[in-house]
């Protein structure tokens, strides 16, 4: 089972984690990751807008989740990714993996994030005091996905 959401509204990690745990005693580890909007390189970031094509985005997130479930014995997986205008400090993405063992939960969470950064069809536009510009993908993110081959 996996929960995949692409939404504009914020999320609550504690609530999402509790939903996974509810009524279960077979889970030995839950790993969660929250990605935040940050102002790096002292650009005076005002906001970041994430755009996407809904059907295409959800399908790709489902593919990433399915691959993670094939690679590791996960009992549950949640991916929530926001879109729209976000501000420094706002939550962008939540990944929660649940497994009987911590190693699988950690590895799966890392895998999902690496592939969200490179395969999920989101386009980011940064607004600073001076400019509005589209953000290019980072070479380091592409390199990270190759490590999973």
Protein model, in words:
With 149 residues, the chain is an alpha+beta fold. The protein has one domain (2-146): Aldehyde Oxidoreductase, domain 3 (Alpha-Beta Complex). The chain is built from 4 helices and 8 strands, in the order βαββαβββαββα. It has helices at residues 13-21, 54-71, 102-119, 139-146; strands at residues 2-7, 29-36, 45-52, 74-82, 84-86, 91-99, 122-128, 132-134. It has a 4-stranded mixed beta sheet with strand order 1-4-6-2, sandwiched between helices. It has a 4-stranded antiparallel beta sheet with strand order 5-3-7-8. The longest helix has 18 residues, at 54-71. The protein starts with a strand and ends with a helix.
In short:
This protein has one domain (2-146): Molybdopterin biosynthesis MoaE subunit (Aldehyde Oxidoreductase, domain 3, Alpha-Beta Complex). The chain is 36% helix and 36% strand.
Radius of gyration: 16 Å
Q: Could you say which structural class the secondary elements and strand pairing correspond to? A: alpha+beta
Please state the oligomeric state of the protein chains shown.
single chain
CATH architectural grouping: Alpha-Beta Complex
Query: What is the count of structural domains?
Result: 1
Q: What is the overall silhouette?
A: globular
- For the biggest β-sheet, the strand order reads 1-4-6-2
Number of helices: 4
CATH fold title: Aldehyde Oxidoreductase, domain 3
Helix content: 25-40%
CATH class: Alpha Beta
Gap from first CA to last CA: 24 Å
Give the beta-strand count.
8
- Name the beta content range: 35-45%
Q: In sequence order, what are the helices and strands, one letter per element?
A: EHEEHEEEHEEH
Regions with little confidence, pLDDT below 50 for 5+ residues: none
Query: Average pLDDT, to the nearest integer?
Result: 92
CATH superfamily, by name, is Molybdopterin biosynthesis MoaE subunit
**Main sheet summary:** 4 strands, mixed
């Amino acid at each position: 089972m996996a929960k995949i959401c692409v939404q504009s509204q914020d999320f609550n990690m504690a609530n999402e984690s509790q939903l996974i745990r509810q009524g279960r005693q077979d889970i030995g580890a839950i790993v969660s990751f929250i990605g935040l909007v940050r102002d790096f390189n002292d650009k005076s970031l005002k906001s970041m807008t994430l755009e996407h094509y809904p059907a295409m985005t959800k399908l790709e997130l489902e593919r990433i989740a399915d691959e993670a479930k094939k690679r590791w014995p996960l009992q549950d997986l949640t991916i929530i990714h926001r879109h729209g205008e976000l501000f420094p400090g706002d939550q962008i993405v939540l990944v929660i993996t649940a497994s009987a063992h911590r190693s699988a939960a950690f590895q799966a969470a890392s895998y999902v994030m690496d592939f969200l950064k490179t395969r999920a069809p989101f386009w980011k536009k940064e607004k600073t005091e001076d400019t509005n510009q589209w953000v290019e993908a980072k070479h380091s993110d592409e390199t990270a996905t190759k490590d999973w081959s």
